[in-house]
Amino acid sequence: MLATEDISLESENALTVARIAEQEKEISKRLLSLDALRGLDIFFIMGGAGIFTAIAQCWPSSCTQEIALQMKHPAWHGFTFYDLIFPFFLFLAGISFTFSLAKQQAQKKSSLSIYGKIVWRAVILVFLGILFNNTLIFDINSMRICSVLGHIGLAWMFAALIYMNTGLKRQIAVCALILIGYWLLICLVPAPDANPGAKCAPFMEQASKLFSPDEQITKNLTMEGSIVGYVDRTIMPGKLYREIHDPEGLLTLIPAIITALFGMMAGALVQKDPSVVSSREKILRLILWGVFLVGVGILWSTFFPLNKNLWTSSFVCLTGGIAVIVFALFYLVIDVLQFRRWSFFLVVIGMNSITIYMAQRILGFDRARNFCFSGISSLCPETIQPLIMAVGYVVVCWWFLFFLYRHRVFLKI
């Protein structure tokens, strides 16, 4: 009897080891640069930004204060480092889709099945976004329907549908058409409720002012006068993030599609057969493309301001270009040169990015941080206590993710 039980236990252990080995093999096949860069992106949401803010509190100087300012969004027009986080995540979601699509096509899955999965993923992200904003209280009058996750899900979905049905040349044409069309829309079409009785001037008369915006175009780019906010105030139920405007509203979804499509175009390039396009050439193409987009974004911003709230076309080009360049560098170091050990901290975060995003809303990481670090903090000088607590929060979150990583628990949507 005991011998039978021992054999059974050995078989079970062997299966467990085999299963873990198979999972390790799957992880090793992943584009680790993608997970690492996603981890870096989420690190700032997971408390990384708080560390830099705490450093500025502990050791105030012009340098640390400027870094702390980069950890916040501008009030309206403008651009800071923190503005990169949302576009980066959407860009990386685009890259991920190209690998997922290739895997599904290799498994001979039908187009209908793939389309269904795309739509279902978008629906889940919209639901999670609503849940994140409103918890489990569903009062339509006080709910905020728009959300970061919903924005990602829908923009990614439309970009995926475009990617699956077009080639590279048409994708570039779609990008140009949408970005230019969006520029014309929000510059030339005023919000009716902010411009009562106003009549639109002839198109050519207005278009001539696009490169040196007059008072009316400037007003159309304000929170009160923008057609973007007007559409959300008119159509969206519930409340908006900024009362009269929502940065994750309906119209801002249109240019966000291009951010996701940029990621898919980058992913398609990386997946090309090395015998056709070498790794060196892939990286060079990515960097040149990124520099081009950054240049377009900066030039465009001289008459179409960088604005995350409006997700302006200049903002799409600048953030997309930076994302392409940074991804190229991560891909070079981690996947081509195989320098991977340093990225483990980030990979643990990146492989469960949505998990930690939602968990911070649901679980009590603050209480866990206080339990583990308040005693240590109390023994230190008061000036550095905010930094210790900020670092402690990141440590608690990371150990939670590491526990999931070690047990191969990954939230996949």
What would you say this structure looks like, in words?
The chain is mostly helical. It has helices at 2-29, 32-58, 62-69, 85-106, 111-134, 148-165, 168-188, 203-207, 215-220, 227-235, 253-270, 279-300, 313-336, 344-350, 353-362, 365-378, 385-406. The longest helix has 28 residues, at 2-29.
Topology:
Elements: H1 2-29, H2 32-58, H3 62-69, H4 85-106, H5 111-134, H6 148-165, H7 168-188, H8 203-207, H9 215-220, H10 227-235, H11 253-270, H12 279-300, H13 313-336, H14 344-350, H15 353-362, H16 365-378, H17 385-406
- The number of helices is 17
Order of helices and strands: HHHHHHHHHHHHHHHHH
Major sheet: none
The share of residues in extended strands comes to under 5%
Give the radius of gyration. Answer: 24 Å
What key attributes describe this structure?
413 residues, mainly alpha, 0% strand
Task: Give a nutshell description of this structure.
By secondary structure, the protein is mainly alpha-helical. It has 17 helices and no strands.
